[in-house]
Amino acid sequence: GPQWVPTVDDSKVRDGVSVPVYPKGVGVLLVRAGGELFAIANKCAHMACPLEGGKVEGGVITCPCHDWRFDVRSGQFLDAPELKIDTYATKVEDGKVLVQLKGA
């Protein structure tokens, strides 16, 4: 079933910054937007470009490769909502960000 995997210190994820983490080898991008913490797949729906380094503004991350824009809350591609990237639940315990992996 689902499992919570600890990643980085909560303090490392600042507003408007994306932080790549690899819980159990899965590429996940932590993003804080408007004080809330989100976790999305660290790859764009287009050519699997890594999203790390993408600009984060108001809950939207822009892929650095081709400027595809995704909502960090839902993972939806803003220009075609039927396309989306995976999102992951997060929580903070003892100052660490935990990411929920869906598990086998």
Explained architecture:
- With 104 residues, this protein is mainly beta.
- It is 0% helix and 42% strand.
- It contains no helices and ten strands.
- The chain has strands at 3-9, 18-21, 28-33, 36-41, 55-57, 60-62, 69-71, 87-88, 90-93, 96-101.
- It has a four-stranded antiparallel beta sheet with strand order 2-3-4-8, with no helix packed on it. The chain has a three-stranded antiparallel beta sheet with strand order 1-10-9, with no helix packed on it. It has a three-stranded antiparallel beta sheet with strand order 5-6-7, with no helix packed on it.
- The radius of gyration is 13 Å and the shape is globular.
Report the span from N to C terminus: 6 Å
Compute the average pLDDT. 94
Main sheet overview: 4 strands, antiparallel
**DSSP strand count:** 10
Could you give the order of the helices and strands?
A: EEEEEEEEEE
| Helical content class | under 10%
State the low-pLDDT regions, or none: none
Strand content: 35-45%
Strand order of the largest sheet: 2-3-4-8
Structural class: mainly beta
Q: What gyration radius follows from the Cα positions, in whole Å?
A: 13 Å
What form results from the Cα inertia axes? globular
How many DSSP H or I helices?
0
